[in-house]
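Worked Example 4.2. Read the sequence first, then its structure tokens.
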Amino acid sequence: MSSDFSNKTEATKSKPKQKPNHPKRYIFRSMSVAHVDDEYDNNTPAGEPYHVDKLFPNGDIYMGQWAHTRPHGHGKCLWEDGCMYVGDWLAGKATGKGKFSWPSGATYEGQFNNNYMEGEGTYTGSHNDTYIGKWRRNTRHGKGVRTYDNGDFYDGGWKMGRPHGRGRYHWAATGHQYDGYWRQGAMSGAGTMAWANGTQYEGSWADGFPRGNGTFRWSDGSCYVGVWSEDPSEQSGTYYPSSSNTGGGFEWDPQEVYLVNLSDCRISPGEKIPIFPSEKAVNWDCEEKVYGARRATLRRLGNGGAHSLGSESSDSSDEGGGISTSTEREAENGGEQQLSLDVLRGYRRPRLKIKPAKRQGLTISRGHKNYELMLNLQLGIRHSVGRPAPATSLDFKAAAFDPRDKVWTKFPPLGSKHTPPHQSCEFKWKDYCPLVFRTLRKLFKVDPGDYMMSICGNDALRELSSPGKSGSFFYLTNDDKYMIKTMKKSEVKVLKRMLPAYYNHVQAFENTLVTKFFGLHCVKMTGTAQKKVRFVIMGNLFCTEYAIHRRFDLKGSSHGRLTVRPECEIDSATTLKDLDLNFIFRSHKSWFQEFCRQVDRDCEFLEQERIMDYSLLVGIHFREVSRSGEPLIAETSLSRGNGDQTSEGVPPRLSTADLSLHFDSNRLASIKLGSNMPARAELTMRKNGGEAQLIGEPTGEYYDVILVFGIIDILQEYDIGKKLEHTIKSFQYDSTSISSVDPRQYSKRFRDFVFRIFRDDV
């Protein structure tokens, strides 16, 4: 390859036609090297590719088509360390068909996208480790066949560089073969292992070993059927001799399968790719972020060029070797390729950057202005929950819902007959409808001891950094299970009024999405201030084992529903709004149908209670995030499935997230409507300019996610204040775009919007 460059020491350009009076054009025979800081010919139209040979200061060489300030078209790049790429370029990135060679003799020939090996391609290692199949972001991902350097052979599905899904592995040295399901590089699910001596095991596997129901057969036809486990105490089964076996007693330990039979059935690590093409990025000395050659781009797109204009998400896997600094810099600079398509079409492509989740709130310690209020609250809760009470029934008289049903308790610092001494100031404590809320806690399966320890334990509460729009303050328990919200007197009245209907609703529908209320209280300070603080204790929607990467407060309206904050300031604690939403959530049919039914029930309940201005709070956890902080696009071909049933009896057409969860019984048990729900989030894009587009256009790019959601802020009546707000804003804005509307109209608009962003994954 170096010989291709040895006779070329000068950049040559194919110039446009010269004007008649233009000076004579010279053709140089002895040429000098063109440096990267040389300006391109001003007579060359911007964006029209032309041929150059460039030698960079670090010794890298590029020879091929060039447009504006970077490679565009067909070209060849030879790096100083001996790596070489020959193929298609788009806006300075290896994109399209090409071949990458390593100094060791290894090669990759196939599709590239944004400097990554992506699409169909063949990798041939220096020791004849060969893979032919699908790639995604430098990793084997999809359907593929690999012949390892030791002669082993695998044909099947791949995910993030490891066998995943249905596949067949053959051990060359022994002749053994496994045909079945895999998960993250290990035999998992239903499968059959056939040993070269004629014995075989057919049944369930987990983490590379038999686990669960299975049958071990000998070559003479006898078999052992039972439950398998690496733990001998969990192993059980029955031996069935063959008709030809007339011998005496049979002695055999099933643990031999683990200790002997499988001892030489290890998966070959294979040859590692020394360095990835995406890590060989060249600084083209270009400061512009948007590729300016629009005519060349449009011509290439119009001619059906085989360029996959993908997203800028990065990859992270055992095989991919992590994310290089060049890749991170590439992600920060934005998606030039995608911009050349999306911007020209008038769409605004969202940038997704996931920052590490931070613990919310400021711990209330001594010296905090609300320290005494926190102590009073904890003393009151301990008193309310801990005092003896008659056994509660889920059905009781209407008198229990009487708004006047409240219990006042005085807490002097020295204590009293019913209260302990304390270090706070004297205060009075009020319980509203104590029997009802005690019963609600029982209905919601809240253990009294755990409830008391969460709120009143040794750990202090945490105050959220800023009050809500209503002026209320929010406090979180240390274990994140409960949220405490200060309330206005009008909100307390609404909750007491609707309490009977609320109780009946949550009792009738176990999977209701409305806020769970556990207690309604008031603290009255003594002294000159006589300050009253009313508060309600609620369940924290985002108390989950999954980190919440994005959260959205959705109403279905557009006026004022945009978070004016730069992308760099958005983190996991930022609450985004309707016009910030850039996803459509697709869940399995059974979950989607139950979701629609429950949203209808909850909205009908709120409409009957004349409630409006509520929201659907949605938390998103991206299951796969690169080390540079970008969600990884799901492999749709693997996540869709191709059969009626998986090996574990899982229904078809589940996402990758669903399948992963079905192999984890603990996490499977935590899934319910609105909590830890697996789904696929399809990225959407909105058009630039014009009227606000409430829901963007689907792009076909999917992310495997876990969703947590519920209906919050359900204590706002359509009172005289809201009616006045509706009248005033209707003169200024489109009446259908504002939040303050009649409960019936609000309910309809809310449901219409929710059923557009949540869809069946068909």
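Now turn to a second chain, presented in exactly the same format:
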Amino acid sequence: MGVNGNAAFVFNRVLQRNTHQPKGLRAESEALTTTIVTHLNFGRLREAVSILFASPLPFPFSLYARLFQMCSTNAAIVEARKVESHLIATFSPTPPIFLLNRAIETYGKCGHLNDAKELFEEMPQRNGGSWNAMITAYAQGGCEKKALWLFSSMNRLGICANEITFASVLGSCAAVFELFLSKQIHGLIVKYGFGWNVILGSSLVDVYGKCGFMSDARRMFDEIENPNAITWNVIVRRYLEMGNEMDAVVMFFKMIRANFRPLNFTFSNALVACSRISALLEGIQIHGVAIRIGYEEDEVVSSSLIDMYAKSGDLESARGIFELPSSKNLISWTSVVSGYAMNGRLREARELFNEMSERNVITWNAMLAGYTRFRQWEEALELIFLMRKETQDVDHVTLGLILNVCAGLLDVELGKQVHGFIYRHGLYSNLFVGNALLHMYGKCGNLRSTKLWFYQISHWRDKISWNALLTSHARHGLSEEAMTMFGEMQWETTPSEITLCTLLSACANIFALEQGKQIHGFMIRNGYEINVAGRGALVDMYSKCRCLEYAVKVFKEAPSQDLILWNSMILGCCHNRRGRDALRLFELMEEEGVGPDHITFQGVLLACVYEGLAEIGTEYFNSMSNKFCIIPRLEHYESMIKLYSRHGLMDELEDFIKRMPFEPTVTMWTRVLSACTEHGHSRLGKWAAEKLNELNPSTQYHFQIMDTSRGCK
């Protein structure tokens, strides 16, 4: 230890003197003590230590203790080394152990664990306090494993730990998720009679919760006779981290009913839990508690309230808190921008974003995530260029979002540039970024690069990586290859529900009924909980494979049918030319109180096409906007043109074309021209031919009525 690496040794050599001073020097010692204390009272630590270091006289133990304390507070490592050297030299060969223990504590708090370790090892005698001080220094200095090793050595030597040591060791156990040792320490705490200690009880709740054993954490919490605010904060926090958000909220309200005043971080944890499970009502109640006890303007609480309201979709309430004088900080600005962006109010989000005087990478990511979520790729790209111009600060989330933009724009060249940036900056080993690269290459159709990158990340890829690979092949019509890859996947990892849904879609695309059944059986045998998406994929697969009875069975076995499942079943009937059954299902869906969407009407109109129900189809089309407030899309107009064309309703077709809110596409006009040729409607046919020649001048279209007499004799 020392100013230059070994201070204790150097100073000891300088200060080796006879500690038995004449009695006449006692007055001088007292005078110097008074001077040193005066300097300390005025915060002049360096001057106080300089006077002590220059004197060969011994000083009162209380003065050394105070000096060590002030060195700890000010992280004054040089002064701490001087005080320790003076102590050892003056009281050699038996300096007071308790003061050497204070020196170890000081070195630990200053972050110089090597000094603490050297002093601990050189001590001629040690007591329990010495071990406790060294263990605490390791624990507080981030050397948890060394702290646990030293505690084990201490325990083997039969040296008793105190409450502080137990608390430090439990903190180290929590940091490295050492559950087995934690339970042994729990036993020692009970054995030594420290079970009543609320700090140790809170530490045990913490370590059990961090190790994922919330039942043990809750049992320990319930055994604490007088939990304090920190104990309550720990149990709420651990429930939140383990994904038990509702339990976290329940514990918060139990704390309030027990008349405890929550910490600001307890409020924050409870509000985060509410935002994750969209528990807006509970969040409002927590807001009321915060107002009642004067926490609404606390920076931590106000930022959490803004985030909760924003994520719950109540942007007005979030904005109201944000406008409070004490609430505008970087965190709250980011929460409001994120709230508006993720709720689709991108213009307002961008206005707030532009008003910010300070931004960090999280702020940029929040705005970019809003653009990508709502597929505003051009705006997202513009923001990326602006970000690169204003800051060099990017993280793995930024890169993942940028790669999503490249995928959305189908711009593989830009994606390759991002890949190069990732490689140059050593970020390629981040799995989130690696999977985003897989998704980008797959979405852009560059399957060669997809496979190459997939094999390059073979040492750290996961289920998401496999799913991206399988999806990319299934999306581009290579369903058989996707099925082969599924077999390879099972040697490495267990497929997720998302992967299985992807494979079911692949089976549907190639009408592979047997493979689809095998996947269905795999899901049942391995205990997969078949959720709504899974049932929808099964219904779709069985329907497209012309096995409608199995599709119906899967549909009926669902504990509840939501819109996705109804849509899958309606479209399934259409695939099997069972249009009237599809329409009957639509009626049942309405009776069940499930509102349709644009996909539902795509199936309904397709059913009308198959069954030739032009009048009913027209009614359904009109009801989209009149009754259900759904704006018809391109595919709905295409279905109506197909309906009128197939069944020769040319006047209705002409009227429908004229009332369309946009110009028909080439495909639409081509279908109209074919219908007019078949059914002999010259006026509309000539119009369709003219429009096709305008839209596609390279190919000349002519209207000619089909001659059906040649086939007759």
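Notes for the reader: The radius of gyration is 37 Å. Residues 26-41 form the longest helix (16 residues).
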